[in-house]
């Protein structure tokens, strides 16, 4: 679960991230990100939007729980002071946690908030295998 300091709670905060931030959409979710205004900010924050279009109350809460768990695991890799809003789309209702995690990772990489693992371990001195 996300600590209280890592949660977006006020509608003004959600509105600011969604209007001023960058956006990356995937099949099951859309991630809005606003970089830190103050580089000395201590932690990143995240909020979630799961509308009635996703499903009934039970389905919406299940999707929100899964997203909270996935974001909590990745929040440490996001630059400090950044704000995220994760908006679930209707296909998220039938998605597994692995599918949601893959979409979340792809969106965060597109927003340049997660390092690309393929590039992190690559040796840039050569372009291919030695012959």
UniProtKB/TrEMBL annotation:
One of its GO terms (cellular component) is ribonuclease P complex. GO terms for molecular function: 3'-tRNA processing endoribonuclease activity; ribonuclease P activity; tRNA binding. Its EC number is 3.1.26.5. It is an enzyme of class 3 (hydrolase). It catalyses: Endonucleolytic cleavage of RNA, removing 5'-extranucleotides from tRNA precursor. GO terms for biological process: tRNA 5'-leader removal. Keywords: Endonuclease, Hydrolase, Nuclease, RNA-binding, tRNA processing. Belongs to the RnpA family. RNaseP catalyzes the removal of the 5'-leader sequence from pre-tRNA to produce the mature 5'-terminus. It can also cleave other RNA substrates such as 4.5S RNA. The protein component plays an auxiliary but essential role in vivo by binding to the 5'-leader sequence and broadening the substrate specificity of the ribozyme. Consists of a catalytic RNA component (M1 or rnpB) and a protein subunit. NCBIfam families: rnpA (TIGR00188). This is Ribonuclease P protein component.
């Amino acid at each position: 679960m996300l600590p209280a300091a890592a949660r977006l709670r006020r509608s003004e905060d959600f509105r600011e991230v969604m209007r001023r931030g960058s956006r990356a959409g995937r099949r099951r979710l859309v991630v809005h990100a606003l970089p830190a205004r103050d580089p000395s900010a201590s932690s990143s924050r995240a909020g979630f939007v799961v509308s009635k279009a996703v499903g009934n109350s039970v389905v919406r809460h299940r999707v929100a729980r899964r997203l909270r768990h996935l974001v909590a695991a990745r929040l440490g890799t996001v630059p400090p002071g950044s704000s995220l809003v994760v908006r679930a789309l209707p296909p998220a209702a039938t998605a597994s946690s692995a599918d949601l995690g893959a979409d979340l990772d792809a969106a965060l990489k597109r927003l340049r908030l997660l390092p690309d693992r393929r590039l992190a371990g690559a040796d840039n001195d050569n372009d291919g295998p030695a012959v």
